[in-house]
Amino acid sequence: MGYIRIILAAAVLLDHLGISSVVKIIKFDTTTAVQSFFVISGFYMSLILNEKYIEKSKSYFLFMSNRILRLYPIYWIVLLIASIIFIPHLLPMSILNFALLMGKQIFIFVDPKYFISPGNGSFIFIPPAWTLGIEMLFYIIAPFFVKSKKKLALLFGISLVLKLFFNYSAISENLIFFTLGALSYQIYNLIKTKNFHHLLIIKILSVLFFLFVFIPAIAFIKNNNINYLIQNLYSIIYFPLFTLSIPIMFLTFSKSRIDRLIGDFSYPLYICHSVVLHIFYRLYLINNLLYIIAGAITVIIFAQLLITFVDKPIQAFRASRIPSNKKLQR
């Protein structure tokens, strides 16, 4: 599903580049893009927990340590650059306050404000990194729920109640999307041997979903009347349809090397772009087409450097920790 992941990451990047100020008829829905990432993450975590981390002995430690290795080294490299930019502007500061601030930056998922306020609720050097905290909190609980259909149903019920009646924090707002991804894995488990994804009708429906549901949910024409209708319509139909489409997309593209390479590019691009754009902002290179082009190119180059010198060596180490007959790409 690399193509889908890179489109979602690109939507966030283009919105933060301010493309709507240049191409005034287009608006990107970054909230839907990020929540779609959460659904995909829920699917992948269910997949690897049920098909790769299946040994009881030390499997939880291995899973958690590999997730940390997947997310945090790249984040910490970007955080180092962000710290050089931000820390001089925060001084003077007491040693205790500085330690607390940096602790929240380094171990972003430990911030209790995830449970009491929308987003992260705290000042962070890399704004998109608030999603890492949500990801890590889901990773912590996922092994206890996604291997059992009954426990997964319980988690879905809890997340639905939180979403409908206690939707005031990052956790209560977003847990439902990870759970939808886990449910999507259960659908995948039912159809993976049926070869449904090779049927012409399924391919046609997938193309129609991509063109008329997925893309309009992420990028739509700015019009006050249309926007109101779209937001209400897609809040009802988009995520259920997206959940149903994931097994088909995974079966279609899981063996594609190009799709995997594109997908691996999405996380570094997502996590590094705000720092690059902040540097451009400080140089007053903003709000014009040249800024958008230069910013996008710079982000792509930085993301590729992160993949080459950080992600690939760590990915090789992560893969070496898993028996070869259980390796999956994630």
Could you please describe the fold and organization of this structure?
The protein is an all-alpha fold and 330 residues long. The chain has one domain. Helices cover 72% and strands 2% of the residues. It contains eleven helices and two strands; from the N terminus they run αβαααααααβααα. A two-stranded antiparallel sheet has the order 1-2. It is globular. The termini are close together. The mean pLDDT is 86.
Span of the ends, CA to CA: 11 Å
Number of strands: 2
Average pLDDT for all residues: 86
Shape type? globular
Structural class: mainly alpha
Radius of gyration: 20 Å
Task: Work out the strand percent.
Answer: under 5%
Element-by-element helix/strand order: HEHHHHHHHEHHH
- Whole-number total of structural domains: 1
Number of separate helices: 11
Please describe the biggest sheet, giving its number of strands, its sense, and whether it closes into a barrel.
Answer: 2 strands, antiparallel
Low-pLDDT ranges: none
Question: Biggest sheet, strands in spatial order?
Answer: 1-2
Helix proportion: over 70%
